[in-house]
Inverse folding.
């Protein structure tokens, strides 16, 4: 895309989209003072430690920056604005709120962590399935900037009250959350803006905040519907499920979903034969699920070139890592071998030699797929800051 057109498109979106508001430098300074006031007040009341106060007030924070990510696989190539929250005044505050919500999000029955988690879900669905089984996918349009803040705050409060250990009182976590949401300032072309609706895509708070709201949204959806999916899984704003009540009832289910809140609208895809979700192609053959690799037509497979100055260990690990990915996703040996050959072709174009490719891929060949679908979760958090 032409640089001038790219800049023009971003500025047009910022000025015409009600999600964002141009503000003065005076307003930006006030927001920055309010952040400090919130943190200092919590410290004075003994809610947070001195170390936590220091953590929440970085010495040299910078303004957020905006960039656009073109959706090349969609008609018209619409652009999604991403507000980079790295090193901003609320980055660490967003991280703390995220941590307080993370356990709740992981406990949601619809929660999917990644592709491996999704493949495990499919493996555990009772089979064979009926010939009338419909696989469906729902995509929430622009979820992050569409989350209704009032309703989301209620969902977050309920989630926080369910915590076994309330290291920070619920009302103070909510105050930090509001501070993060209301302080999402950024600059573009020397102009200052603030996001007024939803949450920023580039914020550490974004995923857990949006998913906490969607968990409550899903509860209301299922309460409204007489017929429900027999399986229903969500990766942030992408949903995959199984429907056993026919096409007409499925369309009715989606209409009900789109009536819950005017901000939350879903796009539907469905099939009785094959459908893609994340990077997996799921098909039903003879009553059983089969999975294969799915790549978008726009994927150019531009893996790290062999001539790159990266450490040789990094480049050596690429064929093996991609081989493991194929081994996990492909449920049949036939599909694995097909994708393996395609991978070799892509990597050869990136400068890798056949001998080294075979050496690394051969290690993946011998591994047990069921074992590869198992993994250990790791919990990361700076506990000492909260004590």
């Amino acid at each position: 895309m032409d640089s001038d057109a790219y800049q023009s498109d971003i500025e047009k979106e910022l000025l015409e989209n009600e999600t964002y508001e141009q503000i003065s430098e005076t307003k930006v300074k006030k927001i920055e003072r309010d952040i400090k006031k919130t943190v200092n007040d919590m410290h004075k009341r003994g809610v947070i430690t001195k170390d936590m106060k220091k953590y929440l007030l970085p010495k040299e924070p910078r303004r957020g920056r905006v960039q656009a990510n073109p959706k090349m696989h969609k008609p018209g190539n619409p652009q999604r604005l991403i507000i980079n929250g790295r090193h901003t005044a609320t980055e660490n505050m967003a991280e703390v709120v995220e941590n307080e919500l993370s356990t709740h999000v992981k406990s949601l029955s619809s929660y999917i962590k990644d592709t491996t988690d999704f493949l495990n879900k499919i493996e555990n669905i009772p089979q064979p399935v009926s010939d009338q089984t419909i696989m469906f996918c729902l995509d929430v349009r622009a979820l992050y900037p569409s989350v209704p803040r009032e309703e989301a705050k209620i969902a977050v409060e309920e989630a926080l009250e369910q915590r076994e250990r309330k290291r920070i009182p619920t009302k103070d976590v909510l105050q930090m959350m509001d501070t993060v949401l209301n302080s999402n300032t950024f600059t573009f072309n020397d102009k200052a803006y603030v996001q007024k609706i939803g949450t920023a895509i580039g914020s550490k708070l974004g995923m857990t905040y949006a998913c906490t709201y969607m968990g409550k949204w899903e509860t209301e959806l299922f309460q409204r519907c007489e017929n429900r999916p027999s399986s229903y899984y969500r990766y942030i704003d992408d949903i995959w499920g199984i429907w056993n009540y026919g096409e007409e009832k499925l369309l009715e289910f989606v209409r009900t979903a789109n009536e819950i809140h005017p901000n939350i609208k879903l796009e539907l895809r469905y099939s009785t034969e094959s459908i893609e979700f994340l990077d997996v192609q799921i098909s039903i053959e003879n009553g059983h699920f089969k999975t294969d690799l799915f790549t978008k037509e726009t994927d150019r497979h531009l893996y790290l070139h062999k001539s790159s100055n990266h450490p040789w260990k990094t480049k050596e690990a690429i064929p093996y890592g991609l081989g493991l990915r194929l081994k996990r996703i492909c449920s049949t040996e036939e599909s694995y071998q097909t994708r393996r050959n395609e991978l070799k072709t892509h990597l050869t174009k990136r400068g890798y030699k056949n001998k080294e490719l075979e050496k690394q891929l051969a290690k993946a060949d011998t591994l047990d797929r069921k074992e590869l679908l198992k993994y250990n979760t790791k919990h990361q958090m700076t506990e000492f800051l909260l004590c």
Q: What stands out?
A: The radius of gyration is 23 Å. Residues 377-384 have pLDDT under 50 and may be disordered.
